[in-house]
Amino acid sequence: MILVWRFCVFTNCFIAVFVLSTWTFDLQPGSPNVCSFVRPQVVRDRISELRSYPRTVPVLINGCNKVCMRYVTRTFYYTSYREVDRMVQRTVFDCCEGWTRAAGQAGCQRRVFVDQEQPLPCAVQNGGCQSICSHQDNRVVCACHRGFRLAADLSSCLDVNECLVGNGGCQSRCVNTYGSHRCECARGYKKLSASSSRCKDIDECSERALTDTSVQDVV
Q1: Residue 148 C-alpha from the chain's centroid
Q2: What angle is formed at CA 109 by the lines to CA 104 and CA 113, rounded to 5 degrees?
Q3: 131 burial class (0-12, 13-18, 19+ CB within 10 angstroms)?
Q4: Three-state secondary structure call for residue 166
Q5: Is 144 exposed, middle or buried, given 0-12, 13-18 or 19+ CB atoms closer than 10 A?
Q6: What is the pLDDT of residue 161?
Q7: Is 115 exposed, middle or buried (0-12, 13-18, 19+ CB in 10 A)?
Q8: Number of C-alpha atoms within 13 angstroms, CB side, residue 29?
Q9: 54-79 b/e with 16+ CB inside 10 Å = b?
Q10: Strand, coil or helix: what is 43?
Q11: What is the pTM of this model?
């Protein structure tokens, strides 16, 4: 809708033109021919993690005639943050199939022809998407699974290097893999479990004692 307003100041006259949107109603549940759709959406969460690391520090020894100290290993803690993408399902309201919006009318009250034999875009070569294809506002929207992000072409997916954010949650060494990552420990340490991101010190002396064998000659 276009409004033209003419006003004058003394002998000078001006004309102002205003362009108003023809959509005066938002789509609401219960409006004519408005349906609800569940569509995927990528959201980003910021996660805090309590991490620890060992450090050798000097400690004074009491009861010594001179300054005496020994070194002990203490555990220090700190908080790190990392961003994680996850896929959620959101409910949105749009025109039901076969209907579209009409200017100045609530809901969707203009009938459109729907070719039942014409397949949906996502049904043909996945809509051009490498991973997830969905329909939003009569167009194709591509998304990626966890561990990947949408490329600049908005159709293909690129691997996310989780190690760049908070070292991937690993205590020691983070190794990026395609679509995921894994944690490794430095030499002299081992993981608490196969799926753990934390490391513990290896007692080489105890393990060597278990593997050593002694042979005694019998006379």
Answers
A1: 9
A2: 130
A3: middle
A4: helix
A5: buried
A6: 92
A7: exposed
A8: 4
A9: eeeeeeeeeeeeeeeeeeeeeeeeee
A10: strand
A11: 0.39
pLDDT in tens, 71-84: 888 898 888 888 88
Q: What is the mean pLDDT of the chain?
A: 77
Q: What are the tens digits of pLDDT across the range 141-162?
A: 899 998 999 998 888 999 999 9
Looking at residue 210, its amino acid is L
Sign of the C-alpha dihedral computed for residues 64, 68, 73 and 78 taken in this order: positive
Top mean-pLDDT range of 33-47, 65-79, 170-184: 170-184
- CATH fold of 125-159 reads Laminin (2.10.25)
164 Cβ contact list (under 8 Å, min separation 6): none
Beta bridge partners of 15: 6
- What are the domain boundaries of the chain? 34-110, 125-159, 169-205
Q: How confident is the model over 92-126, as pLDDT tens digits? A: 888 887 778 877 778 887 766 555 556 677 877 88
In Å, what is the CA distance from 68 to each residue of 56, 58, 80, 85?
Answer: 16, 10, 36, 52
Q: Which residue has the tokens 């991101």?
A: 197
Sign of CA dihedral 75, 76, 78, 80: negative
pLDDT at residue 62 in the model = 75
